[in-house]
TrEMBL record:
Signal peptide: none
Gene Ontology process terms (BP): isopentenyl diphosphate biosynthetic process, mevalonate pathway
Keywords, alphabetical: ATP-binding, Lipid biosynthesis, Lipid metabolism, Lyase, Nucleotide-binding
Native source species: Oceanobacillus picturae
Xref: Pfam families: MDD_C, MVD-like_N
One term under GO cellular component: cytosol
Name this polypeptide is given: diphosphomevalonate decarboxylase
Family matches, as PANTHER family: DIPHOSPHOMEVALONATE DECARBOXYLASE (PTHR10977)
EC number: 4.1.1.33
Length: 324
């Protein structure tokens, strides 16, 4: 009863920002992402009668506390669905350096769900696997697929129609992402706490929700047509709207640092000079820059020269979950 799976992280172009149900993680809006090849998690799950409790090893270290609790509770879901009560040893290797500014929860829960269900003997469809993964961490449900994926928010209260679906595979379009890592990245509000506070208190939140259907249909058109300007403009505006909601929250907050804004302005300046590039930002100060392969050199060089930038990590579209 052992299986190993690999999953990549993803970057949202239409952001997931808010829950309508916190316990089974149902979102207030649909979202869309690109899976990235550079950052991934490989996880082995072994269920055995010999184990007297779950064990979680991450990068060769035994994990306890909150991280262990989330993994063990997720294993409960897998056991429940399979009707089995065996404990498991989970052994994960993360190729998502914290310094790259990506959350490892997306690739982490996608790999755990895939390896865990396989190890316990369940053969799930991608949709079933995505709906299960969602309950570990929302954004993880999109990492089941390679390339572009949409997490459909669904309407059912039991979450049975809230899962990701593939929009276009990695081979469809070589859209690239430069992760701009800032020297100072301390984050005061977690994404979980940030979205909750925003949903509950920001008067701008309804405006955010109202804008999603148009953004979603436009970006899907842009992806289909490989229209970089269309995709970039929608993604950048969507990111700015998400971050605007946090300024209206009570108490107000922002994930941006001064260098975050310097990078945003540099991207706008590149466009002024005729080099197409757009930015997006998640629940943290780091910026991700979207660009096309022919501009890689100038994009990397320009971003590296910004004071306060510690590193640039380049990524291409990545594959969905694979079993090793
Ligand atoms: C996203 N983020 O769509 C958005 C954009 C952050 C900003 O998904 O509570 O770690 O585990 O469902 O998925 C970060 O939140 O939150 C996130 P949970 P998650 O990628």
């Amino acid at each position: 009863m052992k299986a190993t799976a690999k999953a990549h992280t993803n970057i949202a172009l239409i952001k997931y920002w808010g829950k309508r149900n916190e316990s089974i993680i149902l979102p207030t809006n649909s979202s869309l992402s690109l899976t990235l090849d550079g950052f991934y998690t490989t996880t082995s799950v072994h269920f055995s009668e010999e184990y007297t409790q779950d064990k979680f090893i991450l990068n060769e270290r035994v994990v306890e506390g909150e991280q262990y609790r989330r993994v063990s509770e997720f294993l409960d879901l897998i056991r429940q669905q399979a009707g089995k009560s065996l404990y498991a040893k989970v052994d994960s290797t993360n190729e998502v350096p914290t310094a790259a500014g990506f959350a490892s929860s997306a690739s982490g829960f996608a790999a755990l769900a895939a390896a865990g269900t396989k190890a316990i003997g369940q053969n799930m469809s991608d949709r079933e696997l995505s709906a299960l993964t969602r309950q570990g961490s929302g954004s993880a449900c999109r990492s089941i697929y390679g390339g572009f994926a949409e997490w459909e928010m669904g309407a059912e209260e039991d979450g049975s129609d809230s899962y990701a679906v593939p929009i276009a595979p990695a081979e469809h379009w070589d859209l690239r992402v430069a992760a701009v890592v800032l020297s100072s990245t301390a984050k005061k509000v977690s994404s979980r706490a940030g979205m909750k506070r925003t949903v509950e208190t920001s008067p701008f939140y309804q405006g955010w929700l109202n804008s999603i259907p148009t953004d979603m249909s436009q970006i899907k058109e842009g992806i289909k047509e490989r229209d970089f300007q269309k995709v970039g403009e929608v993604a950048e505006a969507n990111c700015l709207k998400m971050h605007a909601t946090t300024l209206g929250a009570n108490p107000p907050f922002t994930y941006w640092h001064d260098t975050t804004m310097t990078v945003m302005q540099t991207v706008r300046d590149l466009r002024e000079k005729g080099i197409p590039a757009y930015f997006t930002i998640d629940a943290g100060p780091n910026v991700k820059v979207l660009y096309l392969p022919e501009n890689e050199e100038v994009i990397e060089k320009t971003l590296r020269n910004i004071p306060g930038v510690a590193d640039i990590r380049l990524s291409r579209p990545g594959q969905g979950v694979t079993y090793l």
